[in-house]
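Example 4.3 (complexes with small molecules)
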Amino acid sequence: MEVVPLLAIEQLSKSFGSNEVLKSVDLSVSAGEVVTIIGPSGSGKTTLLRCVNFLEFYDGGSIRIDGSEVGFRDGSQRRRRTERDLARMRAETGMVFQSFNLFPHLTAEQNVTLGLQQVRGKSRKDARDTARHWLARVGLEHKAGSLPSELSGGQQQRVGIARAVAMEPKVLLLDEITSALDPELVGEVLDVVTQLAADGMTMLMVTHEIAFARDASHRIVFMADGRVSAEGSPDHIMSGADGNDRLEAFLSRFRGSRI
Amino acid sequence: MDQIVYAFPFLLQGLWTTILVSAIVVALSLVIGAALGVGLVYGPLPVRLAVRILSDCVRGIPILVLIFMVYYGLPPLGLRLDPFWAAVAALTLFKAAQVVEYVRGAIGSIPRGQMEAGKAIGLIFSDRLRFVIFPQAVRRFLPPWINGVTDAVKGSALVSLLGVVDLMHAINQVIGRTYEPLPLYLLGAALYFAINYSLSSFSRVLERRYAFVRE
Ligand SMILES: Nc1ncnc2c1ncn2[C@@H]1O[C@H](COP(=O)(O)OP(=O)(O)OP(=O)(O)O)[C@@H](O)[C@H]1O
Ligand SMILES: [Mg+2]
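Answer. The structure with magnesium ion bound is encoded below.
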């Protein structure tokens, strides 16, 4: 039986001017899978995630979610989707940002209900119930009425996760979601991600928390210089197998620290 | 003094014209300026260029010249406006160019991540503006804009140059009959001040209303 990946990235290329940031990247994620991308700074991890929900235009190759090309019309010669079409595709992926990017003028609950009402077309009451449910899931039911400015970084990021998953995306994208947090707040956010993984949420994430990557992922992808340089099970990658020098060099930086 | 009391209804009529001109200018310039401002920030290159050039030109011309250009310059091109509407059009153009800059500044102050977060949850462009960008931009937009509104009230006195009987013009006419300039100018100043003071008080209420970062 052939397993069709939920997210299929093929020969993806992307340049900023003359700087070729992604060079024919192939990567696929199956339903329920948690895939983590690691790699040195500037290797294109963020750019790759941003291409997946078309925050970044990609120059070549394709990204398909459940068979549909993300940025371009089906069966076309790379004709860009219309705004409405693109928005519909973007709603298929959830994104959690490094810098949270909560809407500062809306309460935690309103941050979650906005998309539910305007994009999913839920009634006010339905949206509210769903928001309450997800805020409870991230441990913030008591903060529903708080503005982002009244929340700690860890709480803000948990609202960010609730906002993304409440939309019931097919794939959740997480880009270094704990790197803007004080160390003592990292755990509460990673716990939420672990929970989501256990519930079968399909995730593609970038993290510098190597220990977390090893424990939470089904598969780890090592990117270097705009390419997938190594890929495999956490144990396989962490053992630095394959005699991959760049992977060795990258991992050696974490050796000695808790891993 | 009696004569001034006698002239009061006439002054009130002038006051009404001043308020009317100001209100029309402020409302029209807000709508036009906001639309052009959004075009300047998010539009395709030709739109951005056109708005940039228009705004720079209009702001580079004294309002007085602009008024005369519209009143005397348009008829040869086949568009004849009466003094009232010519003055209103010129003032609106001038104000709209300012609004464009306020809008650009206000939207520019919002971090890029806000637009991206709106995209990420699947909002279309107009909804991102409506629910994400504008409510935040309003905070930055209001203080300079309200300042500009009081300027518009003061600037409306220029319509008297085309013979429109606004507060300023009415005062001058009454002075012409009564030869009592000082009390009349004081009265005029007081009326302008009253309008602008109520406007700026109102603006402070608005600013508090939109200060969503609770201090
Ligand atoms: N908007 C942009 N314009 C121009 N160059 C960009 C832009 N965004 C990223 N780049 C460049 O693309 C390359 C890859 O950046 P990217 O942010 O994807 O790396 P990363 O792997 O996420 O790095 P980090 O671990 O530091 O987050 C870098 O050389 C960066 O300078
Ligand atoms: Mg990055």
